[in-house]
Design goal:
Elements (H helix, E strand, L loop, with lengths): L4 E5 L2 E7 L2 E5 L2 H9 L4 E6 L2 E9 L2 H4 L2 H21 L11 H5 L17
Antiparallel strand pairs: 1-2, 2-3, 3-5, 4-5
């Protein structure tokens, strides 16, 4: 994953810290607002691929303004909660790996001393 620390409220991750920077959960509109303030998205590289997450860096000015930072954090939490509600519910069934699906079923040993005819 990203190798940072997640910030949660009531089980919902709304921010993350990575490399000494704070990032907030965004939707499209919030991302545009933060981009207008000079923010950039959080990204990381794994297995030769760059991944961009839906978290954007807190603008520098907000780090010096507690009210601004609190408002941004509240918006990030609202955004994260909305995203969580929008996810389809899972059936609660555990996923089965491809390897276990391909493995042959184990069969029990035949019973010893089975029935014989005429005895």
């Amino acid at each position: 994953m990203f190798g940072g620390a997640g910030l949660y409220a009531d089980g919902t991750m709304f921010a993350l810290e990575a490399g000494g920077e704070l990032y907030l959960k965004v939707d499209d509109g919030f991302a545009l607002d933060l981009a207008a303030r000079g923010s950039v998205p959080f990204s990381y590289e794994a297995r030769g691929r760059r991944t961009i997450m839906s978290y954007w860096k807190v603008p520098e000015a907000a780090l010096d303004d507690g009210e601004d930072l609190a408002a941004l954090a509240r918006r990030a939490l609202d955004t994260a909660r909305a995203a969580r509600r929008a996810k389809p519910a899972t059936s609660g069934r555990r996923k089965t790996s491809a390897a276990s699906k391909a493995a042959p079923a184990k069969r029990g040993k035949p019973a010893r001393g089975g029935t014989s005819e005429g005895h």
